Amino acid sequence: MTHAAALENFRLSLGGRDVLPLMLGGMGTNISTAELALAVERLGGIGHLSDAMLMDLSDRLFGTRFTSEKAHRTAPERDNMDKSAVKFDLEAVKAAARRYVSDVMARASGKGMVFINCMEKLTMNAGLDTLKARLTAALDGGIDGITLSAGLHLSSMKLMAEHERFRDAMIGIIVSSSRALNLFLKKSASTGRLPDYVVVEGPLAGGHLGFGMDWANFSLPTIVKDVKAFLEKNGLSIPVIAAGGIFTGGDAARVMEETKCEGIQAATRFAATVESGLPYAVKQAYFNARPEDIIVNHLSPTGYPMRMLKQSPAITGEIRPNCEAYGYLLNHGECSYLKEWKARKDAADAGAAPEAMPAHEKCCLCTYMRNYKVWTCGTSAARLHETSVKRENGEWILPTAEDVFKDYMQSTGDQILLPAEARAYLAASHAAPAARPDLLRTEAASSHSAAGA
Ligand SMILES: Cc1cc2nc3c(=O)[nH]c(=O)nc-3n(C[C@H](O)[C@H](O)[C@H](O)COP(=O)(O)O)c2cc1C
User: Fold this and answer.
1) Quick check: is 372 in a domain?
2) CA-closest residue to ligand 1 atom 14
3) Phi then psi for 337, rounded to 5 degrees?
């Protein structure tokens, strides 16, 4: 059944500007790259950068030496399991964020907006100080907006309140319930500033989940409607963005109409695009994902459940923690992976039998995220194969950010607009459609969509 509305018929009004109602979700560490966020911005939507491990990213992008300098300075703590003395240099934290953000903003077209996702659970061994440094430096760098996410700190607004851009930059929060939103609003009321938007992330999203292991009992439309009702009851007019499992343009339009939300946020489909920071082979693994490959576990030391492919190398890998160089999850000198690693090492050194070894339940998230070995994804990764074409050599044609963006904007009902390169490949190859009857539907749909575009 074809649904009449397409996402491109809606507009999201933020800070007096109208943009297309599609946000690219922030994906750390450097999965939502500058190139990905800017591609979405240039198409008139909102692209998210991520501020996770920015010092390391700065080293890779600009040749700075923040990570090696920190590792060198804190090297004496290497054998000390209490990492309280492994501190970030706050000036360096600010310098890295300012440079990265200003470099990206200088390349923005002004057609859409570029926001940064600030994952507050990165406590960086001095939660409030490092958070304040990250937030204010992003504002210094000229970011259009900041989205406060995982581990939402109730006083984040206060940390930015003195900044000259506090009232004109967009500031939003990610919640998974009206209760969390209520708490945040109460706590930040003294700043006299409301969030400019609220992203409601449902249980099917990628990354860390704002639910327990009973996530399957919740539904995105129900939570969005609940948040909308809460805002209305309190006389608050704040745009609500729905996120998690919105896979097609038809899904997006349906959720907009059903819940009356003002926009949607999507990530998984963009994670597998040409512009995403994931290595090529990992993008291929996403395209090959089947429903049974997608699991939710407690591997992350943040304490939040995380969804990932069960083939993620981080699940079985066990490495010496590298808190001196990274240490983004340290909190008062501790991290649950560090604790587990020490307990297992002590047991192994004492000659413990395998069955007496402490369980291996956590991973070194810093090192593994940095090396793209945590393959986090939304449940819809299992449907990525519907969105492109596999070449005869077995490799998937990767969509560009523009391909995915246009599909979200223009497709209706159950249509999926195939990437331009995939359509060209199918046109040139007579064997492929016959060999892949499941693609005939989408190909037919895409020609129809493209013709009408
Ligand atoms: C690879 C990947 C990494 C993510 N990383 C983050 C993150 O660093 N911070 C965050 O708030 N959300 C993160 N998310 C969640 C997304 O921003 C987004 O809200 C959600 O995945 C949307 O659902 P979808 O993936 O089904 O489209 C991540 C999602 C994916 C797929």
Assistant:
1) no
2) 207
3) -70, -40
